[in-house]
Task: structure prediction
Amino acid sequence: MYKLPTPRPQTSWKSWGGVQTENAVGEEAGRVTRELDQLQKRADFPLNILPLVRLNTEDAAGALGRMDHDLTLLYACTGGGNMLRACLSAKPDTIVFVRHRSGPVYYWYEALSTAYLKTGNGAANDTGSGSVHVDDVVVDDGDELLWRLRAVAAVHNTRGTRIVALGGAWGKYAPDAPEVAKRRFGIEIIDVGYEDFERRIWELRNNSAVLSDAERWTRRYLALPRTRLETDRRFVVNSFVLYLAFKELLEKHSATAFTVKSCMGTIIPMSETTACLTLELLNDEGLAAFCESDFVIIPAGLLLRHLSGKPVFLHNSTFPHKGMVTCAHCTCPRRLDGRKYEPARIVTHYESDYGAAPKVEMPIGKVLTFIDPQYSTARWVGFTGKVRANPAYEICRSQQDVEIEGHWRRLINEVRDSHWVAVYGNCLREAGYAARKFGIEFDGCDA
Result:
């Protein structure tokens, strides 16, 4: 975005900024194009950057809204407030880039203000400027731009997710959670009953070809390095049969996510195993799979999955003390970094002492990002922690003692016997930025 000035004698005729001539516009357009080419090569998520568009009138800026793209990346060189408003309101998602030292200084490095931008507590003073926030402004830094683009991509990939909910959907201590997930996140919940599923699992378990495949897959799985079987092998075979049944539902409904309700009861006798190992398999191959069908936590899990490009660990929370919490559940992905399999003992599900569940060992010192939603309200708590131990308490099988980073005592006021979700690495910054796009208040306990 730019507007070239016209020299006038004996008066001020130009604003701040180093893009004031046609030659300067051409040079800056080339600079921006080269930088974006490099940015696209560095991106570790799907990113398609369209050709640069030069805007020097309000009409041209207004036409942005009719173009087919997800996000506007606005290089605000010069130009007036009306032109800026037109650019900011063209698309719901806009990032503004201005220069201080990375090239010719931009006028809007000086002039951007809360007259045009939303702040942390509310709308912009100028309601004609769309939804652009002060956090949507980047000065000079390509890395700052890249992580914001990653976060917006995660928002787009989370919104509209189709998820199969076997046995229905609910929310722990929040019965309205499924409806909130639909309304706020655009999640499409496909409710599948157990009656038809029970018939299908019986057919699969009595199909010799299916059993042969399940046996073969069991051999391959148990041959993975650092995999130890400590339950009846037939439970693992049955877990692969269950995997086929779950995959059929996903394909039938064109869904990329899966969750199962009554996984500690209803599904066990019909499958003659537990769903724990099966959910691990789905997560490890790149899908999003959750136990318990809890739509308090599932939206956060989907968002973290897309933010990080890695499987997430949905787990029970515990009471923070001395900077420590224990995180545990009977299903956990093994390819937690998105590539290699972490060590695992294949044991029974804890509460039933039956079936097949992975007890996954995470590396000591590994940094995790956590999200703890305040039930179905529009508030999430986020923090990071480091794995300090993989104990063997009499609780759910995959379990870690985690040292909380930041103000751990604040978490004492956030205990609610709820599910949390964790992922490898520190993506707290991206999570907070993305959560705001859904109207979520994100409270980071790292500060």
